[in-house]
Design brief:
Chain lengths: 510, 134, 145
């Protein structure tokens, strides 16, 4: 066990378990109490605990290939369930818990506004389940356990997306479609795990990796990989399996969209990295070919097509949702290069994208809270009416485009560099083309916001206008400033992404 | 060919079930029937796992507690692999939760739209959008 | 009240048996296949049978919906709490060995506690799902018949 940094050593020793167990146990309490505010308090406490544990784990995995292993129930791996934290998932856990915490600050006013009072405690219980599930996916080292956590988080997600039906009944159909597609994806994933178990007789991911390496060219294993890639690709909104995403993001409550955009697809993307590089070896020609000839073309077509679709949206959140699909394409492109630089660039974009989409969706949430607006045409003149919120939105949008001195520029820069290292000039063309498309769709929103006189009345019932609460302004500006900060001082993020890539590529068979 | 199929009879059943479920999921516009298809699809995977755990002539691997202490295992006895069963127990619970969640959504969709046919729902949404003048 | 007399009498006979069988499946799981998941569903089915024969109102009186919600949370809480007890004694999450001095007895105790939690949750969840669906009064138009 590594040294403790700032928490007591007794807690640090159990940090991987606490990260998941605290949200889980508090979700049961949240489900049993009637008060929504108390449930929010529980959610906030568990996000706080998760953040502290994640920081501690993150610091603990900074060393050369440092791995923190935690045996659930004292049953040693590979027989028991193992929680295994390395540079890759420590970064993800840090991202997950910090964006979760910021989103929760935003949740208090936003959820009170959007969700029925009697349902709020259940809403937070479902959110905590989702949060615990996502942390569990990121932390676990057991393949089947990963499936269980994936489903825990998904079922929680379906519930909280459907809660958007008070604003728009289409949230129900969006959630239903997500449920159907997500379950197909999860079932494919289980089939894949089943094939791996047939071929290896173990479920521990590190153990699977070693056993697979001993049997190259095994068809059962290759079929298993294909099933896993499709299954998790569905959850990660890998083009063309992204059809559930735009509606789910557009009609969910604002808080849910903010949280999911920053975390959910990221976790699924992490699972793809974990399985492609760690469980399966990139040295096997099969995985290499899959990444080059399947994932990369899909990533590039996703970047272009989804950006084009984003151009024609009228709902602001739907537009950003399509842009999210395009951004998943960027990350997968980095992955498809199958080099350390590519994976690092992909992971870097993953982290930065969480920052920018978090800021953008949160600003849209603030617009919806104050003026009740959701469509792009209705954003008219909000730049005059809410200059600070609009400025934060603008920073997020510039970062999304990849303007220099923002976080988005850094990750695109690294992505292009990695592509050039591979001699993939066409990938560079695709990145630039998608960025140009991003300029168009962001321009459309920004012009509507800034180049219009301030609206005199909102779209809320009786034309009422509300001021932005502090609990929205603070997390929004934290995210916006993070975009600027990590755009100018990228060292920390780049370091984090490179450690993650190293952990992914060297982690498996050693 | 026939011999190969008969040897792998269980897999044939699983694949037929899986495709039945997937077809039902895609072909019908009725949301409840879709949930039925989804459940059949999931169940086929449960069977795949259970098949893995079966050992011919194996018995349930439960310790013999004659003296109420640690229990004993007969080394000459052949046991089935219990792990897939445990996994599938978990997966069944996940499946039930998904089914309940999906049906709950269908109930709410029925209340909000007055129909559970996919086409009718899309049409209702579409005409609503047209009214709003998008 | 005279309607479905046979059903009522048979149900009154059956429901206690179902409950006993549920507990049997639960506690006999050490010696034979069984356990909390199966037992929970069996227990919940007793209430569902009761609701089918005697009506939802009677069932709601027997097990109020809020009770189902609290019990399902409490069961999951017990499960997680056992894990936290192990943590307080300085062992890994869900390591039952700390509960009692003898290892195998501690494992028994741990698994029994966890199974009780699971039993409560499964029973309450099935009941809650049943209430959630059966409790909504449907509006059926004439054409649907």
């Amino acid at each position: 066990m590594t040294d403790a940094y700032f928490l007591p050593a007794a807690i640090v020793a159990h940090a991987p378990a606490l990260l998941v167990a605290v949200p889980l146990i508090l979700s049961t309490v949240a489900a049993a109490i009637p008060s929504g505010r108390a449930a929010w308090g529980l959610a906030f406490v568990s996000a706080m605990v998760a953040l502290l544990c994640a920081i501690e784990l993150f610091l603990g995995t900074r060393g050369e290939y440092a791995i923190i292993s935690y045996a659930m129930g004292g049953w040693e791996p590979p027989y028991g369930i193992e929680f295994r934290i390395d540079g890759l998932n420590a970064a993800l856990l840090l991202l997950l818990s910090s964006t979760g915490l910021l989103a929760l600050l935003f949740a208090l006013p936003s959820v009170a506004d959007e969700i029925d009072k009697r349902k709020q405690s259940l809403f937070y219980a479902a959110f905590l389940l989702c949060f615990a599930g996502l942390s569990g996916v990121a932390a676990t080292g057991d393949a089947f356990n990963l499936f269980v956590f994936l489903e825990i988080s998904s079922i929680g997600t379906y519930a909280i997306i459907a809660m958007g039906h008070q604003n728009d009944r289409r949230a129900l159909t969006a959630s239903f479609n997500y449920l159907v597609m997500g379950t197909i994806g999860a079932t494919f994933f289980v089939i894949g795990i089943g094939f791996l178990y047939m071929a290896t007789g173990t479920l521990n991911m590190a153990d699977i990796a070693q056993t697979i390496a001993a049997q190259p060219g095994n068809r059962v294993v290759e079929v298993g990989f294909a099933f896993i890639l499709v299954g998790v690709g569905l959850k990660a909104a890998l083009f063309p399996l992204h059809l559930w995403l735009p509606n789910a993001y557009a009609f969910a409550p604002n808080f849910v969209t903010t949280f999911l955009a920053a975390t959910a697809t990221k976790v699924a993307f992490y699972v793809i990295i974990r399985f492609s590089f760690d469980v399966f070896s990139i040295d096997s020609g099969f995985v290499q070919n899959t990444l080059t000839y399947v994932v990369t073309p899909l990533a590039i077509s996703g970047m272009i097509v989804a950006s084009l679709q984003a151009l024609f949206q009228s709902d602001a959140r739907r537009l950003l949702a399509y842009s999210s699909v395009a951004q998943v394409g960027y990350m997968l492109l980095g992955l498809g290069m199958a080099t350390a630089a590519g994976v690092a660039a992909g992971s870097l974009h993953l982290l930065n994208h969480a920052l920018m989409k978090g800021a953008l969706f949160m600003a849209l949430g603030a617009f919806a809270y104050c003026y009740g607006v959701r469509r792009i045409d209705d954003l008219k003149g909000l730049g005059q009416a809410m200059p600070f919120t609009s400025a934060a939105f603008t920073i997020g949008a510039l970062s999304l485009i990849g303007v220099p001195f923002t976080a988005g520029f850094v990750s695109k820069f690294y992505l292009i560099q990695a592509a050039l290292d591979n001699d993939w000039w066409w990938a560079v063309v695709a990145i630039l083309a998608a960025s140009v498309l991003a300029v168009f769709y962001c321009y459309r929103m920004l012009v509507t916001i800034w180049v219009n006189p301030a609206p005199t009345e909102g779209l809320l019932p009786n034309g009422h206008i509300r001021k932005v609460p502090l609990l929205i302004t603070v997390p929004l500006w934290v995210l916006a400033l993070a975009n600027l900060y990590f755009g100018t001082n990228a060292g920390f993020m780049v370091d984090m992404a490179q450690t993650a890539a190293q952990a992914a590529i060297n982690g498996g068979v050693s | 060919m026939l011999e190969m199929l008969s040897e792998r009879f269980v897999y044939v059943v699983i694949i037929v079930l899986m495709m039945t479920g997937l077809y039902a999921l895609i072909a019908t516009g009725n949301l409840v029937k879709r949930m039925v298809g989804l459940t059949i699809f999931q169940t086929s995977v449960f069977l795949l796992y259970i098949t893995m755990g079966k050992v011919f002539g194996g018995v349930p691997p439960i310790l013999d507690y004659k003296d109420l202490s640690n229990g004993t295992l007969d080394p000459n006895q052949l046991y089935s692999n219990p792990l897939p069963h445990v996994l599938i127990l978990t997966a069944i619970v996940v499946g039930v939760a998904t089914l309940a969640m999906g049906l709950a959504l269908v109930v709410r969709i029925r209340e909000a739209y007055g129909t559970i046919e996919d086409d009718a729902i899309s049409e209702a949404d579409y005409s609503l959008e047209l009214e709003k003048g998008v | 009240m005279s309607a479905h007399l046979i059903l009522r009498v048979v149900a009154k006979l059956l429901i206690p048996l179902i409950l006993i069988f549920g507990f049997y499946v639960h506690f006999h799981a050490k010696y034979a296949p069984g356990g909390a998941f199966q037992a929970g569903v069996i227990l919940a089915s007793a209430l569902i049978l009761y609701a089918l024969i005697f009506g939802m109102d009677a069932a709601r009186k027997a097990v109020p919906p809020w009770a189902a919600r609290v019990v399902l949370a409490l069961g999951a809480f017990i499960f997680a709490a056992v894990g936290f007890v192990s943590l307080f004694f300085g062992e890994n999450f869900l390591d039952y060995n700390v509960l009692l001095p003898t290892d195998y007895r501690a494992q028994y105790l741990g698994i029994i506690l966890v199974e009780i939690g699971v039993l409560m949750t499964v029973t309450a969840v099935i009941i809650a799902i049943f209430y959630a669906f059966a409790g909504r009064s449907p509006e059926i138009t004439d054409e649907d018949w």
